[in-house]
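To whoever is on call:

I kicked off a structure prediction for a single chain this morning and the downstream step that reads the tokens threw a length-mismatch warning. I double-checked the sequence; it's 281 residues and nothing unusual in it as far as I can see. Pasting both halves so you can look.
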Amino acid sequence: MAIEVGNVFEGRVTGVKPFGAFVALPEGRVGMVHISEVSNEFVQDINTVLHDGDAVKVQVINIAPDGKIALSIKRLLPPAPRQPREGRAEKTLENMANIVSGITKGRKTAEADLQEVPYMAVSNVKDGYIDWTTVKTILATRQEIEQYRLMPDDILMTEGGDPDKVGRGAIIKVPLKNSIHQNHIFRVRLDEQEILPSFFAEYLRHQKAKRYFLGCAKQTTGIASINMRQLRALPTLVPPLSLQKQFAAFVERVDRQKQTVQQSLEKLELMKNALMQEYFG
């Protein structure tokens, strides 16, 4: 039988990687089953499901122009019975987090003992990541530093910007020493017994959260803004912690794979530039 999309083969696993398994096919060909195509259920560690030498039935789901063959195991399995969702509660953010605004630039203070510290501005908070390109500093009192100091896994959120970016946020995983944030940024410190920072950060990028912010934001001349009251009232989906941890592990694995791919692309670009220099001077 020719190796074509839709055809089914009996194969044997010849290698297992964190992202998937390689399967020997007829005619000496090899295809790959991505981890997402192994089972109808979530697979966190592919090594718990597949091993070198396992006999598997696979379906060809894609053949790339370069000849790479994508396979699936789960598409040949009977559909998994739908399970009722475990207690997917919805809570307002204020019931799961401590939320504060930041320090005001240009404020007046009578104290002479001021310390220069890193200062996170709106320009540092992007949709899903922190931009460290330019970090400004500000003079602050010891009390202000204690009040606004950022901690690992705090979520920073902007109060305003373009309508499609209002309420954007990101985790600050490793804050700079004694770093604080400006008053146009909200700092959200979550109760991790209720909701994980990695889950909440992704929830902020979901259309449900974006629609809420856009619906309640004050808009003037193309700029939208939210206030503390509206942020506290954000309706937030809160799955059981076990599901949040599964989701967080999946996101972390995807981010690692994206980083690996990016590093490979950068190396290829360097090689190309070196060859161009060699051949064209």
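Update from on-call: the warning came from a stale cache, not from the record. Cleared it. Sanity check on the structure: The helical segments are 142-148, 197-203, 207-216, 228-232, 241-280.
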